[in-house]
Structures
1.
Amino acid sequence: MTELVATEEGGVRWRDRRIPHESGGVRMDHHPDRDTALASAENLNPTLAAALAGRDMPEPDKTSLTLKVRKALQSRQRLDTEEALMLVEAVRRHRDTPRQPPNALRLHPDTEPFRDALARELLIYPYLRVALLSADGRTVVVYRDANDLWSKPYYAGEKTAVSAMRARIANGFKYHQDQHWGQVKARIRAELLPRANQLLQLASVQRMLAEALARGERVLVSNGIVFWYEPDGQLGWMIKSTTSDKGEDGATLWQEGTIISTNHGRLVVLPYIKENGDLVRGHTKNGPGDGRAKPRHPDHYVEIPFRELRGDLMIGLFGELPYE
């Protein structure tokens, strides 16, 4: 578990969570699996938020610190849901990839104790070039070469463990897990946009959008994808993608904010709050290399509130549709 702590300069940073021990020292906060860790965090966060609210400090400083905390949490949560979506799509793309039975895997002799663990991993992620495995109290990483031979096991330190977990996404889109992670995800986002456009053809999504339009909602946002309703020219619902000025992808969303569209740009900058408390309206624009966005006639400027969809809804749409 990691925790967000205040710095002497008035900022915040993430560090490994430290729990005071009766001996006078501290211990790290370890959990056996992701679900247990998430449940623990959900119970802990309200307590930490209450402690921050009760701090004896000048009100402007407290407001600034609270905003920074919210921004840091939002940024982590967005990354988490985005990567979960990418993982679902990576697995979906390889649902027809042949799976090897455990006894058919070609292993280095030292990797033999991990054969069953590797087979279980490849059953879900058959495209992996590196795998993080646990057996007999050991956690290791193994690598697959061009001849489908798996290497000897290597100790899984934090860096190699992170790399192996990223491989579950990157390898599924034919990228290397050690490439620049931000660049890899940017390329994956570009690959996912045509897939996102397919959502508009699904009856279930059409029903969801029709219900939203009946409620007066014309912009729905989830995980970097925007469902945008354009009445002029009978365009109807279309897909845009989100961005933030100055690359502030973790900017704190101003939930009551509106988007003012003066052009037909393909990118939507969502309303956000600066660390000094200034509220920045949302707007539309084109990306680098797109040229200037086609302007709207002043009579057709639109000011639209937006609503965020739950991340798990989009994950469902890209994989199974649990509400159908």
2.
Amino acid sequence: MATLNPDFSDQTVVVTGGAAGIGRAVALAFGDAGATVLVADVREEPKGPDETTPTHERISDAGGTAEYVETDVSDPDQIRTVVEAAREFGGVDAMVNNAGVYTKRRFLDVTPEEFDEVHAVNARGTFFGTQIAAEDLIERGDPGVVINTSSDTQGRAAWDHSHYAATKGAVRMITRGAALEFATEDVRVNAVAPGPVATEIREGWAEEAAAMAPEGETPDLPLRAADPEELAGAYLFLASDAASYVTGETVWVDGGGHVC
């Protein structure tokens, strides 16, 4: 199978939510491509039952450069701290706003507290992650890239997902608005919209995703559930010079689900 092999050896990449799931796969891929990676997460340990080595240690063990920075993205001051930490390595070149939380709840059952928690991480964290990274890039006079993790729920209704989907719709518009405003500053802003992925964002989801019907047998999932590693290439592409004329875009990596 052909692979994308960009060289990020002179780049510093911040990945929020990089301890597990999609963020871990993305951070490891950037590490493999030579980038210095700052893993920003509320926890250091991976969540998968078969994974025990923290992401930054995996990168370091493979000969790369990586650090863990404890970060709650719902607090802009903590986002600023990790972006400032990147300056020790020359400053952030690519900011991946991936941290997210998920709860499945019927519309009538969502509480104000649950609504606020999901929005604080998914929408507020992405907004200020984009803002603070762009502000740093502009201040340094360097070109750079912001990549936000959206979802296939950003543009379609789904049972028990309304409060979560609202945050991902917000991510789409945060991405587009920022791309417009920062285009003249040489800062590109794009998003990746995953479909079903076998991660532990909610308990048992990895097993559910792995058990989904194979190719062609599920009307709203033409392919299958993805492994996190299958999404990483989209992030590397968007951060690379190959995407130098791409901004304000959402790249769907959802097994064709958005076409159904």
